[in-house]
């Protein structure tokens, strides 16, 4: 379908006109504001960035189903957007004509303290999840990312890590059920999708397999008082011999006295003092980590707009000597194949480069990072991976290049699952898991 005929074809396919009101055509007055509402990288907020021919904003799960069935019938490219934080904008940008399935209205959070679990819909933000958990109980939490505006949908399906990773692992290490639509428009849960597909959408990315509606997560316990600190060391203070300044930020699930005595023993070089420490609630620590004054009203976590939006490019690596996010703890105990996320034991750190286009840290860091394969974190999407060493025609060969960096040996299992559940590659994007049988048909 062309960009001109696609919207009409699509709308006419719909089973009920009531759903039409959830469709925004490029001519609708709110089209631009809805599109821009979840653009989190200004590189993709330009007048030349290709726009979707439609934005679908389902507020009922069956609107999602209608969109999938009609899109599949007319082979329209679907981009699924939850919180819009994809570093490369893959949830709302494409080089082919496409439409956005925008999940922001599907954001209910249901917490059950009896079973210490919660169902969280894909369009919820992490800040909303944290706030709602705290509202029910001050001694429960969920291990996920630091930035409160990140969407549950993209975050969890890609793994999800945060500052409790060493204690409780990744977000996906605490997911117990899920609801998702497959390419045939069937609403599946863990039981009906089976363990393979459930495994895939807990770290292998959702956009290759279907539309995730919600995850059921296990809450974790935290003490009433936790401790945070942010300690800066300069070069003169021996922070490191390659940068000018290093900042150590921490969350400790305990009081400051215990933390200071622990670090005097385990990390004396830091020279941590009681006065560096701030005792607060777990929700207060969420504010601290995202650079919000911890005395601010916690309702700021319900704000779906970030404090600032920038032009950004991010990269990631895994290594054995430099420090950014510390691994170890629970992360080292979980087998590499437990979820698609393979960077666990043997990684001391994840490095994230917050660099811009002109100053890639890649080659500079090469001697110090993982090799064969060089690793990268799927949630830190990087379209540079996979550009080299591939013949553009063969999507499987191209997919292997980035796929092995993100998933190491788990890539093969993801390809098998993809081939089984979406053989015609309906759910796809620039870095989705390839479906080799479909590729064969094309050749
Ligand atoms: C400011 C900032 C801070 C970050 N902090 C962290 C952090 O602390 N920890 C961490 O692990 N990561 C972090 N990230 C990375 C973040 O986890 C990923 O970008 C994540 O994919 C964002 O999810 P989203 O729903 O907001 O993004 P989106 O852009 O909406 O989606 C990301 C990808 O997931 C797909 N997707 C989204 N929703 C669904 C769905 N319902 N079903 C199927 N597929 C779906 C999209 O199509 C896209 O491919 C951060 C990113 C930013 C920009
Ligand atoms: C978008 O515009 C169409 C055509 O003008 C209209 O029928 C539809 O109701 C509008 N949708 C929304 C959500 O406003
Ligand atoms: C995106 O671009 C539009 C149009 O130029 C502008 O109005 C809007 O403020 C921009 N978004 C952000 C977050 O800067
Ligand atoms: C920095 O390291 C040097 C050499 O190892 C040592 O002599 C010096 O005391 C250290 N400085 C601080 C502030 O720890
Ligand atoms: C946090 O807010 C309090 C109360 O408004 C203020 O006194 C304090 O200086 C603020 N702290 C920081 C670090 O801005």
From TrEMBL:
The keyword DNA-binding does not apply. Coiled coil: none annotated. GO terms for biological process: cannabinoid biosynthetic process. It comes from the Eukaryota. Residues 48-222 form the FAD-binding PCMH-type domain. The keyword Signal applies. InterPro entries: BBE, FAD-bd_PCMH, FAD-bd_PCMH-like_sf, FAD-bd_PCMH_sub1, FAD-bd_PCMH_sub2, Oxid_FAD_bind_N. One of its GO terms (molecular function) is FAD binding. Its cofactor is FAD. Keywords: Disulfide bond, FAD, Flavoprotein, Glycoprotein, Signal. Belongs to the oxygen-dependent FAD-linked oxidoreductase family. This is FAD-binding PCMH-type domain-containing protein. It comes from Glycine max (Soybean).
């Amino acid at each position: 379908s062309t960009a001109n005929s696609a919207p009409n074809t699509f709308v006419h396919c719909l089973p009920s006109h009531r759903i039409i009101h959830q469709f925004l055509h490029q001519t609708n007055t709110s089209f631009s504001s809805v599109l821009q509402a979840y653009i989190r990288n200004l590189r993709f907020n330009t007048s030349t960035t290709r726009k979707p021919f439609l934005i679908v904003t389902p507020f009922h799960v069956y609107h999602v189903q209608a969109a999938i069935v009609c899109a599949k019938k007319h082979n329209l490219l679907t981009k699924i957007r939850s919180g819009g934080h994809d570093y490369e904008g893959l949830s709302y940008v494409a080089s082919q004509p496409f439409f956005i399935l925008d999940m922001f209205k599907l954001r209910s959070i249901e917490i059950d303290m009896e079973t210490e679990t919660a169902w969280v819909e894909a369009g919820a933000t992490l800040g909303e999840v944290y706030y709602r958990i705290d509202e029910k109980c001050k001694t429960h939490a969920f291990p996920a990312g630091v930035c409160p505006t990140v969407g549950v949908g993209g975050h969890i399906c890609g793994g999800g890590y945060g500052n409790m990773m060493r204690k409780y692992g990744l977000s996906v290490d605490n997911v117990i059920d899920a609801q998702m639509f497959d390419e045939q428009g069937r609403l599946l849960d863990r039981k009906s999708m089976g363990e393979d597909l459930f495994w895939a959408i807990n770290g292998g990315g959702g956009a290759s397999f279907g539309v995730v509606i919600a995850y059921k997560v296990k809450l974790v316990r935290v003490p009433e008082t936790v401790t945070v600190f942010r300690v800066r060391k300069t070069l003169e203070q021996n922070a490191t011999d390659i940068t000018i300044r290093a900042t150590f930020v921490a969350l400790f699930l305990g009081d400051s006295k215990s933390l200071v005595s622990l670090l005097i023993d385990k990390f004396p070089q830091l020279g941590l003092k009681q006065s560096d420490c701030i005792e607060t609630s777990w929700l207060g620590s969420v504010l601290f980590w995202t650079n919000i004054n911890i005395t601010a009203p916690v309702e700021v976590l319900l704000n779906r707009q970030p404090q600032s939006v920038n032009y950004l490019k991010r990269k990631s690596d895994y290594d054995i000597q430099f420090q950014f996010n510390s691994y170890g703890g629970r992360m080292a105990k979980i087998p590499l194949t437990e979820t698609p996320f393979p960077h666990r034991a043997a990684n001391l750190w994840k490095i994230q480069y917050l660099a811009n286009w002109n100053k890639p840290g890649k080659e500079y860091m090469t001697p110090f990072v993982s090799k064969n394969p060089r690793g990268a974190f799927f949630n830190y999407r990087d379209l540079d991976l996979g550009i080299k060493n591939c013949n553009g025609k063969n999507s499987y060969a191209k997919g292997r290049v980035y796929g092995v960096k993100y998933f190491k040996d788990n890539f093969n299992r993801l390809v098998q699952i993809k081939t089984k559940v979406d053989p015609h590659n309906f759910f796809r994007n620039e870095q989705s898991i390839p479906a080799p049988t479909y590729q064969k048909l094309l050749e």
